[in-house]
Amino acid sequence: MNTAPALDPAHTALLVLDCQPAILAALPDGGDREALLGRMEGAVAGVRAHGGTLAYVRVGFTEADWDAIPAANKSFAPLARHRVLHHEDPATAVHERLAPQDGDIIVRKLRYGGMSTTDLDQQLRERGITTLVVSGVSTSGGVLSTVIDAADRDYQLCVLSDGVADPDPEVHNVLLHKVLPSRAHIIDTAELHALLRAD
């Protein structure tokens, strides 16, 4: 595994993906969720303290969004059928422990990837962001899709090993150890703080 480079906060954004009560509820148990939120809180505070960018991605649908999902979409058609994850439902807001602040980027997406149905890429580039640190849930959904897309867009990428989670621990481990390292540096939250200070 390649050593992760020092992170220049002026060109680095922490992506906080799908950290919404409705999505977090799919994770195994409360203790794991609480520990994950605690580590992510530390990552958010660290990036913020160093002057880095915070970018929040949440999933949520309007009536028109649901109506536009084709029946052939295996992942999202059931959400449309059952009218799940309405964008105004409090359960689709960013978790209060990670709440965005003025000046943060916040986008609402309609599919797994953080960039495919949003203007996230444009907003990041307008701020001169070239490095993304990816965190959130789930490893097999938003994290994987966003990393693959961002790698194709030539971002330098880090994935927070202890800041991502998935309902399926086996899938999580395979992705973290076998798939994601080909596109991203795998670091933990302690390394993130060290890399931010290394400038």
Structure write-up:
The protein starts with 11 loop residues before the first strand and ends with a helix. Helix content is 38%, strand content 19%. The chain has a six-stranded parallel sheet, with helices on both faces. The mean pLDDT is 95. It is α/β, with parallel strands linked by helices and 199 residues long. The chain is built from eight helices and six strands, in the order βααβααβαβαβαβα.
Provide key terms for this protein.
8 helices; six-stranded parallel β-sheet
Order of strands side by side in the largest beta sheet? 3-2-1-4-5-6
Number of separate helices:
8
Q: What is the helical fraction, as a range of percent?
A: 25-40%
- Fraction of residues in β-strands: 15-25%
Instruction: Give the overall shape, derived from the CA principal axes.
Output: globular
Report the order of strands and helices: EHHEHHEHEHEHEH
Rg from C-alpha positions? 16 Å
Q: Main beta sheet, described?
A: 6 strands, parallel
User: Mean of the pLDDT scores?
Assistant: 95
Q: How far apart are the first and last residues' alpha carbons, in Å?
A: 21 Å
